[in-house]
Design goal:
The chain has 150 residues and is an all-alpha fold. It has one domain (2-149). It is built from seven helices and no strands. It is globular, with a radius of gyration of 14 Å. The chain crosses the membrane at residues 63-83, 103-128. This is Prepilin type IV endopeptidase peptidase domain-containing protein. InterPro entries: Prepilin_IV_endopep_pep, Prepilin_peptidase/N-MTase. Residues 28-126 form the Prepilin type IV endopeptidase peptidase domain.
Length: 150
């Protein structure tokens, strides 16, 4: 059942990206995002075996604007690292690594909307689960995919 749901989610995201003539990063975000979201929701972990290849893939796809991509990665990832250092219980290390990779595809003016949207998604997940805490990875992935695709 889980495999079918993952395949449905991935095909839906790819279809939307294709209809909107989205950049290649949208497809990479969808492929890695569906898998990372499922893992984070179930295990509250974002494995390096997926977050690091995603970061490399996104950086390679953004090579034509390498300076801006590195700046976005440093600012977005650095903000998440600062939060992790300030309040370690609020955010995991996997979220920080993921944020560095995702920042590469976000233009600097989109970083604040990405942070707000990802936080809103995380709060919605917590409300749906009726829990005080929720994984932040799905919110980061959803916000980044939405901002780069739509």
């Amino acid at each position: 059942m889980t495999t079918a749901l993952l395949a449905l989610a991935l095909s839906s995201l790819w279809t939307v990206a294709q209809v909107l003539d989205a950049p290649p990063t949208s497809y990479a975000l969808a492929a890695f995002g569906v898998l990372l979201t499922a893992i984070d929701l179930r295990h509250h972990r974002l494995p390096d075996a997926l977050t690091l290849p995603l970061a490399v893939t996104l950086l390679a796809l953004e090579f034509h604007r390498l300076g801006a991509a590195v700046l976005g990665a440093v600012v977005f990832g650095g903000a998440h690292l600062a939060i992790r250092r300030w309040r370690p219980a609020v955010m995991g290390g996997g979220d920080v690594k993921l944020a560095f990779g995702l920042g590469a595809v976000l233009p600097v003016p989109s970083l604040l909307p990405a942070a707000i949207l990802s936080s809103a998604v995380t709060l919605a997940i917590a409300a749906l689960r009726r829990a005080r805490q929720a994984p932040h990875g799905p919110g980061l992935l959803a916000a980044t995919w939405a901002l780069t695709t739509l």
